[in-house]
Specification:
By secondary structure, the protein is α+β, with helices and mostly antiparallel strands. It has two domains: 91 residues, 3-Layer(aba) Sandwich (Aminopeptidase); 142 residues, Aminopeptidase. The protein contains eight helices and 13 strands. Strands 1, 2, 3, 4, 5, 6, 7, 8, 9, 10, 11, 12 and 13 form a 13-stranded mixed beta sheet that branches. A hairpin with a 2-residue loop joins strand 9 and strand 10. The chain is globular. The two termini are 35 Å apart.
Length: 285
Amino acid sequence: MTTVTEGQFPGVRPLTVGDVPACAELARDRGWSHGPDTWRVMLEVGDGLGIDDSGGGLAGTVIVTRFGTDLAVIGMLLVATRHGRRGLGRALMEHALGQLPGRVVFLYATPLGRPLYERLDFRTAGAIVKHVGAYQPDTALAGPSVRPPGPADRSAVLQLDRAVFGADRSAVLAALGVAADQVVVAEDRRGLVGHAAAWRTDGVLTIGPVVARDDAAARALVQALAAGQAAPVRVDLPARSPSLSAWAGERGLIPASPTPLMVHRGRALPGARDQLYAPATLALG
């Protein structure tokens, strides 16, 4: 079995929307739930890299999404089962990192990928916990009012999001706004105190991002998006918020094992991260 040696990136090429079917097939090969709609959004806002399989389709993928000039996230690193342990994952990661000089680079690590990320000097900086289940509304919930956003809210949403995320992700939010089933904002006497979106992937309503000034605003946003849903609901909550996780569990959203947040060379992430309650997706941060 041939191994890709360090420094070589044979066949690494840009991905386009024309590669969406092959990307979705690769995800199915690895048991991932990401369908064509997810890949289309990812390739719209990020730069995909792929390695072609001589037998047809893709042998591997990775997507780099840049935010402003200083921050980037790496996601959708996949290598076909038949090509595992040949160095393709490392080749793709090194190629991606080579395109991001000087930036703070982060990712969420799957158990399969974590050893590779550690070898490439990614260090754990936190974790999120997936919560999934049939949502049961909190009839005693108190907090800010939640409503659909209007055109006049755009500036305030982007200002809050940039302060919390630490970089401009207006392109990501615009793409999610088109793909999402629902987008909502929360407001109280202070003004706009949060925003969130929910979209469907393989029969599951995934809530994210959730940006909120405090736990009360985060709970109000999640409830507004999840209440009354017949489909299972998923939200990825930070491990640093055990009280919020406990609340979600009481609402029927069962926690899974934590997923590490890792940052290249252990650099500090920008923004007020204590107010980032759920990523847009694991691949988008």
